[in-house]
Write a structure and sequence with these properties.
Keywords: Membrane, Transmembrane, Transmembrane helix. The structure is a single chain. By secondary structure, this protein is of the alpha+beta class. The protein has 3 domains: about 160 residues, no CATH class; about 180 residues, no CATH class; about 70 residues, no CATH class. The chain contains 11 helices and 19 strands. The strands form 5 sheets. Strands 3, 6, 9, 10, 13, 14 and 16 form a 7-stranded antiparallel β-sheet that branches. Strands 1, 2, 4, 5 and 17 form a 5-stranded antiparallel β-sheet that branches. A hairpin with an 8-residue loop joins strand 9 and strand 10. It starts with 6 loop residues before the first strand and ends in a 13-residue tail after the last strand.
Length: about 500
Amino acid sequence: MATFPLWVFLPTSWDIGNVRAILALIINSLCVLGIWVVAYSGWKVGAMRLAQSRKASTSLLSLFSPAGLGDVLGVVPLLRISMGFKLLAQLLIPGAIIAILSAVAIASAPIARYSTRVGVQVQQTLVPGTLSSVFHSSLLGAVVKWNTTIERFNSAGLPLDQLVDFLPDNTVDWKYTESEWNSSWSASCQWTERTAIELYAMGNASATGRIWDEIQGLDAVFPSEVFGRGYARSYVAPGPFRGDLFPDKMLFVLAQTHPNVSYNATTEDYSNFLPFHLTVAAFHLKNTPANFTSDGDVTWGTGPIEGSWYTMARCNLERTASRTPDKLHIAHPWTWDYISTVEAFGDYYRAPLTEQSFRGEPIYHPSGAELFRLYQAYLATKDIQDYEAAARAISVAVPAVELSVPVLVVFLAHLAAIGLAAFWFVVVRRLPPGAAVPRTKVEWMAQGMRESSGREVDMAYLGASWGELWADFREAKLVTVRDPSRRSYNTIQLGLREEERGVVDC
């Protein structure tokens, strides 16, 4: 069942800081507009009701339309249950809406902060990189390059079923999409998880250099065919020593199809298209006997090994049938320098192994999948040493601002509501001719001025324009006077023109 997305991407060129600032401004603007629409709608409803009513008088509270949070707080002391449900609802509902919109406007910055985030949007982009070639057999000591390549392969989701012919720039956060890659070699692997095994150190007095003779029981975990003439075998065993023991050894053993299988004596070159078989294993040896030679070298001793475990990757590599016929810019597993290949495993794991052993920490034992991942990265970095630049359109994770969908829905619903209300009460619903009710504070002050000045006739109901009062209103003053009983009260004094003086006595 499809799920509704909770976040939506904005254009990748938009900065999160600018988005949040603009979003806070939009929230404030929508709240201000909403408050105005509520106030105008409330006034329009009351004005329409008064215009249609035949009563000689109506309650002033029924004409009250709050225009802000201050108006809402000002009417609270006037509320009574005795007013009746209809009048209370008429006062409370607009007041509640204005209070909510005011609170949202105040909290606009936190709302903008938590309704946006920086996400990652995958889009196809032209990415610079380097093409592989068949002209290189080895690469040693490139631990940083291998590590960044492995991290990028893992982050991109590159599957363990191929060897790459193009290495994108490691600083680009690219993502693997099958349709964008056309690797020349496919891989089919079987993994052996960490398994305990009993091993016995035989020493190397025979100086054969064959790890199978020096560690008894080691050959039991390998398929028998790797010991045939068509296979090349090599090993490396990094690890510290202390006293007469190797406290921790990580023995890497590589068995692969021998490069001589692909050698063409007629053309005197090596083919790079025959099926290729690879077996790589990692053995963790705990407290292995050590031997000091007369030359000062440290070699395998003789005796039981306290604890032994191994992991393994067994892979068959084949040229991809659908690959374009490019014989040069492809991965090159058929290297004659297979010894350097296994030495790369020792280079990569030597430093962390030594540090963990001396600190007494658990030893990290790479899995079979991790062994092949290192092999992938080793070949990819080995084969690009011509540094032939190229660019390909592949998927890239680009930082992009995400906006919360629920917040967006609320904003759009609010905008639609105030738009409909404004259209209905401003455009559609019009007061009948000759009907007017004070709306703004200025108009209510003008109404009070007219009553205080003795103009008992309500000009609004006679169809007079409010503009006729503005000339007097601009010059009007609130003055304190004393009546004959020496009581003080306030009244309004109009600033009348010379020809009107004496007409109105305040």
